[in-house]
Design goal:
about 250 residues; 2 domains; Rossmann fold; elongated; ten-stranded mixed sheet; alpha/beta; single chain
């Protein structure tokens, strides 16, 4: 499975992507016509990163995520942030574009989301280490859920917020959790050990942690899918399935 736009993946010797799919716009700083990888300064599962990069996704470093990539011998296409955490903005190849955003009312992760457009964001390095940073990343996932398709990937799990009825291929035995953002009622589900039919989940009352996939296809149908009122959490080894599901959907990026 690959993305529809041909993009050369980053080389491990530190050279940058040479074929870009980004363009400048007066409305947004950078527009991508394909899925994009965002890298923050937290923990990165490099195996999953290599998979995504191998599909040809351009790489955007988010402030200190540039140091994370430099340590791995990777030059990003773009560096975005207020540049208060990156060790040095110098020394990058000319093909790496740097965009400093000075405002201090948002996190660097949010800056990267509002200053770009892309059909899908694969976000590494925004979970783990500092708990407040992890919570801030979850805040962005919720805030932009109807405008951006974002997958947060840590070293164990990944999470995303569907805004349409979910029908996704997964391997039987996969751990499958649903965490409500707001009260959410379900018309039904298929392919799960514990069906969601007729259930209402709400934080502080009832959640759907550690369900199990029983069939090769899982469907989840909430009463109001467009609201995006729940997160799906699965092990990050399921990234190929999650990317495939997202790339079949209409883009929500603005």
């Amino acid at each position: 499975m690959g993305f529809s736009q041909p993009v050369k993946a980053p080389q491990r010797d530190g050279t940058s992507i040479t074929e870009h799919t980004a363009r400048m716009s007066h409305k947004t700083r950078v527009e991508f016509d394909c899925p994009v990888i965002l890298v923050g300064g937290g923990d990165v599962d490099w195996k999953q990163f290599e998979y995504a990069a191998g599909l040809g996704a351009p790489v955007v470093a988010v402030d200190s995520g540039a140091d994370t990539l430099r340590d791995a011998g990777i030059s990003p296409d773009v560096i975005i942030g207020d540049m208060d955490s990156i060790s040095d903005t110098r020394g990058w190849p000319a093909s790496t574009k740097i965009f400093k955003i000075r405002e201090q009312d948002s996190t660097d992760f949010e800056k990267a989301l509002y200053a770009t457009t892309a059909s899908l964001y694969l976000a590494f390095g925004f979970m783990g280490q500092r708990l407040d940073h992890s919570l801030a990343a979850l805040h962005c996932l919720v805030k932009y859920r109807t405008r951006k398709s974002v997958v947060l990937i840590d070293c164990v799990d990944l999470m995303f917020i569907p805004t349409i009825p979910l029908v996704i291929d997964l391997s039987p035995g996969t751990r499958f959790s649903i965490n409500p953002i707001a009260p959410v009622s379900f018309l039904g589900s298929e392919g799960l050990r514990y069906p969601l039919d007729g259930l209402t989940l709400e934080t502080g009352i009832a959640i759907g942690t550690s369900n199990t996939v029983t069939e090769s296809r899982v469907s989840v149908t909430p009463v109001n899918a467009e609201a995006g009122d729940y997160m799906v959490v699965v092990p990050n080894a399921n990234l190929p399935y999650v990317i495939e599901w997202h790339t079949r959907q209409p883009s929500t990026s603005r």
